[in-house]
Amino acid sequence: MSYVKNPTPDEVKGKIAEALSMVKDTGKIRKGVNEVTKAIEKKTALLVVVAEDVQPPEVVMHIPILCEEKGIPCAYLPTKKELGAAAGLIVPTSSVAIENAGGAKELVNDIIKRLPKK
Fold first, then answer.
1. Under a CB-based contact definition with an 8 Å cutoff, are residues 22 and 47 in contact?
2. Could you tell me which residues come within 8 angstroms of residue 105 by beta carbon, excluding any fewer than 6 positions away?
3. Domains and CATH numbers, the chain
């Protein structure tokens, strides 16, 4: 997709899903484009995850750019369905932001270290 600036390495994708599962129970996740955009603009997001299969791409195209401007790490998962399931939703979602890592703090920090640098 045109909005995927730096693809997330495959070994990190599994860790992202694991971290989101942990954070949904012990931390705080913002779900959906509007909530994620607010978290980025307020600089409360620790890590933003965007689905790669969003149609039309214009819906999430601004998120990686905002993340870059605010210095917030941005990662990608292949599908909205996978991202929604990892965040504990029964519906697909195009983006999520981790605001409080809770019990997954070390895992989230490890993911951030492994993401490609811009």
1. no
2. none
3. 10-114 (3.30.1330.30)
Q: What beta strand segments (E) does 16-114 contain?
A: 28-31, 47-51, 74-77, 95-100
The CA angle 4-116-30, to the nearest 5 degrees, is 60
The count of residues in the chain is: 118
Query: Backbone dihedral region of 95: left (phi > 0), alpha (psi from -120 to 50 degrees) or beta?
Result: beta
For residue 67, the Cα-to-chain-centroid distance in whole angstroms is 10
**Each residue's pLDDT tens digit, 66-102:** 999 999 999 999 999 999 999 999 999 999 999 999 8
The encoded tokens of residue 91 equal: 């519906």
Determine if the pTM surpasses 0.70: yes
